[in-house]
Amino acid sequence: MGKERLVVIGGDAAGMSAASQARRRRPELAITVFERGPYTSFSACGIPYYVGRLVDTEEKLIMRSPEKFRERDGIDVRVLHEVEEIDTAGRRVSVRDLKNNTSAWEPYDQLLIATGAVPLSPNLPGADAAGIYGVSTIKSGLDIRRRLDAGDIKKVCIVGGGYIGLEMAEALVLNGLEVSLINSSAQVMGTLDEEMGALVSKALRDNGVTLYLNEALTAFETTAGKVTGIITDKRTLSADMVILGIGVRPNTVLAEAAGIALGEKGAIRVNERMETGSSGIWAAGDCAESFHLVSRKPFHVALGTVANRHGRVAGINLGGGYATFPGVVGTAVTKLCQVEIARTGLQEKEIKALGLEHESAVIKSHTKAGYYPGAGEITVKLLAEKGSGRLLGGQIVGMEGSAKRIDTLATALHAGFTVEEMINLDLGYAPPFSPVWDPVVIAARAVAKKL
Ligand SMILES: Cc1cc2nc3c(=O)[nH]c(=O)nc-3n(C[C@H](O)[C@H](O)[C@H](O)COP(=O)(O)OP(=O)(O)OC[C@H]3O[C@@H](n4cnc5c(N)ncnc54)[C@H](O)[C@@H]3O)c2cc1C
Fold this sequence. Notes:
Oligomer: single chain
Largest sheet: 5 strands, parallel
Radius of gyration: 23 Å
Number of helices: 12
Number of strands: 25
Structural class: alpha/beta
Bound molecules: flavin-adenine dinucleotide
Strand order of the largest sheet: 3-2-1-7-18
């Protein structure tokens, strides 16, 4: 009998974390990873900083090459190999070698699906024109930067004011370009409540981005197959390049075709150990569902932090250990030039949808003692359940030193703290780091007063 074989589909955060964990625990396991792209373990998160020229070469975004995985970890990584079908009954996958254009069936004992997410692209006239870029892979980052290097791009239009739209806005401002951003709702960063989103909209304007809120994209303007602008329900904007940041969906094509159950949020349904409902098949990362520890409901989020943790848990289990992934609280951070943005837990509309009653408070304070050089403004919003006082969520917008304060709130959500309990948290203080009452505690006091 041959060695037991683990096959992984997708060679990035979730797939390679899992493969590495499984290898560490079971040196005798045969592990093969099929990756349709040319790289493994690349940092998509770094693309905006590469486009913004804060990172000089694309190599710096590759954490570990396929060769290193092969030599150091004995993981058989096959790049430019796309899995086309999963045969659950026969425990095999059909794999196309994209270089030679040949296909073959490959057997597995255990299979991990780590196929990530795919960017949404609008099905609108002109959407296939040259010069329109989604931002998802290293290749998309390279394409955008090469296009900028050519020197003929002056005006760029970004569609979507989520974190990818924001980070790309920063990158393009750093390139000295004329940037406009359209967003279909009243404020950017839809995962923030409106008054916090308004602070981010202001930050965009302060950094020279022309913002069009409450405007929907209706078509792309093109000439001879090249994009020359976008058309919204209110105007036409000329552009030499268009960047799309309108969200992603879990990449579940293979799983769905194989009859593997999806969850409520359209991602692959998994149990706490990251096992799907099909025998020997596991899923992790952006393609898999999570559980929201505050709403107590299934949740899907496409973030590297979650993908790595999913992958680690799946890998421990595939390596013969026992690990569970309890869930997420919806933490995310980003920045736009000098302004840092963070959120965790539930926002107002989610709380209302759950039928919970809440109180909230928005406070302004400083990132350091007010008299200390470099102290910047920070705004914190906290939301707590009426009656119990349980913390439900928090949002932060402010200058350097603001965003990572969200980790205190995320930890409090994991612990199920009330805002009263947060007031006496023994947090660090010295003038270069914080006012004597940390801004998140000032916010907790402000909400507690209202309860
Ligand atoms: C511009 C940008 C910025 C980001 N910034 C952050 C950030 O700051 N913080 C954060 O936490 N997250 C960030 N993210 C999200 C983060 O990159 C993803 O959540 C993370 O990469 C998900 O890892 P994954 O392994 O699940 O999926 P992916 O990274 O998408 O990897 C899936 C892999 O599967 C391969 N694949 C798919 N189908 C097949 C197939 N049929 N056969 C073979 N291979 C296949 C794909 O080629 C891909 O390499 C960012 C993403 C982008 C695009």
